[in-house]
Every structure is written in structure tokens, then in C-alpha cells.
User: Which sequence fits this backbone?
């Protein structure tokens, strides 16, 4: 009698391409650094999370510091790209304010670990690395200032005064606070959150007697 049960076949595991391995390492590093901080994270933990060996890790990054600097720079560029896409979108200034908030909130919602790594990091214990992170925040402010300069100048803002950096700081802080609030209240409808925030940024706080 011939059995109709097919014996299992041990197929070789597909070998990951170099770019795919690197992508896995970077994704695992963002999550691990954000949750545990730089000082408490080991390359072994990142390798395990990425599903690669430490040897493979060293093929792509010589040490933990290089990996950390790479991932925060990469996530910083991604975040700036989302902000820029909103500021430079079609429509008038009011529509672009809403588009910018929407783009930023989507980024923080889809990449919560990146948001924490960039905006609410666990102190690294390394003054130089902490200074790098502060530098990224300053770069973000300069980029937003540059992108907003034309609209603000058209509105009569003196770009050489302290008004520009103050406005950028207020808008950036409001957006960061909103992202943190929405992370705690994900049940709030996205469009309602964006509309309320955009209305506040555009009109200011409601005053007695306003409709």
C-alpha cells in the first residue's frame, strides 16, 4: 500500500539581500533605541530584533554609535519630508496649515517610535549624542522657518525680528503636543483633531463675543 502522506520537504531559507538586511536592522534599531534608550540598548538586542547575526550587523554598521546616528538622521529626514509636503502643498496658507498638521500627525501615528526617538528621547548618557539630537530639533526649526518665510513675509511679519523663531517654536510645540495627545486618545477622529488644531493655529484662541 502506498501512503498518500507527503513527507515534509526541508527547503533552504531564503537568503536576505544586503539591502533587505540593512532595512531590517534600521527598523529594529528605531524601535529598540526609542523604547530602551541608547545607553541601555546593545547591538545584540538590535540584531535579535532584526533577525540577523551580530556578524551581519557589523557588515553594515561598525558600532552602536554609528547605527544610532544613522537611524536618527534617517528618521529626521523622513519627518522633515512630511512637514515640507504639507507646507508646500496646493492651496492658500490656511489650507497648507491644515495639510501640514495632517502630514505631521500621520507621520507620528505611523511611526510612533521615530517620534519618540526624535522628540522625546531617553537621555543617552553621552553629551555629544544628546547635542546631536538637539541639533536635529534646531535643524527642524530652521527648515520650517525657511518654508514658512514667504507666507509670513506676505502677512507682514518681519523675518529679521524675533517674531519668526517665536512663531515657529509655538507652532512646532503645538504640533508635538497634539501628537502626544492623539497618541493617548487614538479614538478621536483624525479629521476632527486636525480641523480643531488648524482652526486654533489659524484663528487663535476664541474670545468672548466671537461667533
Assistant:
Amino acid at each position: 500500500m502506498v501512503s498518500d502522506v507527503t513527507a515534509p520537504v526541508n527547503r533552504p531559507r531564503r537568503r536576505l539581500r544586503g539591502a533587505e538586511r540593512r532595512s531590517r536592522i534600521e527598523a529594529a534599531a528605531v524601535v529598540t533605541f526609542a523604547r530602551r534608550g541608547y545607553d541601555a540598548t546593545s547591538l545584540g538586542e538590535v540584531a535579535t530584533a532584526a533577525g540577523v547575526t551580530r556578524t551581519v550587523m557589523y557588515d553594515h554598521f561598525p558600532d552602536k554609535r554609528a547605527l544610532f546616528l544613522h537611524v536618527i538622521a534617517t528618521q529626521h529626514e523622513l519627518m522633515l519630508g512630511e512637514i515640507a509636503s504639507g507646507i508646500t502643498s496646493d492651496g492658500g496658507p490656511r489650507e497648507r496649515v491644515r495639510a501640514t498638521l495632517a502630514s505631521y500627525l500621520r507621520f507620528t501615528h505611523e511611526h510612533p517610535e521615530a517620534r519618540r526617538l526624535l522628540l522625546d528621547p531617553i537621555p543617552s548618557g553621552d553629551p555629544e549624542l544628546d547635542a546631536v539630537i538637539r541639533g536635529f530639533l534646531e535643524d527642524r526649526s530652521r527648515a520650517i522657518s525657511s518654508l514658512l518665510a514667504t507666507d509670513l513675509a506676505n502677512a507682514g511679519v518681519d523675518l529679521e525680528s524675533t517674531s519668526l523663531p517665536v512663531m515657529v517654536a509655538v507652532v512646532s510645540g503645538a504640533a508635538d503636543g497634539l501628537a502626544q495627545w492623539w497618541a493617548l486618545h487614538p479614538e478621536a477622529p483624525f479629521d476632527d483633531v486636525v480641523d480643531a488644531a488648524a482652526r486654533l493655529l489659524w484663528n487663535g484662541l476664541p474670545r468672548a463675543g466671537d461667533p
Observations:
- DSSP finds nine helices and no strands in the chain.
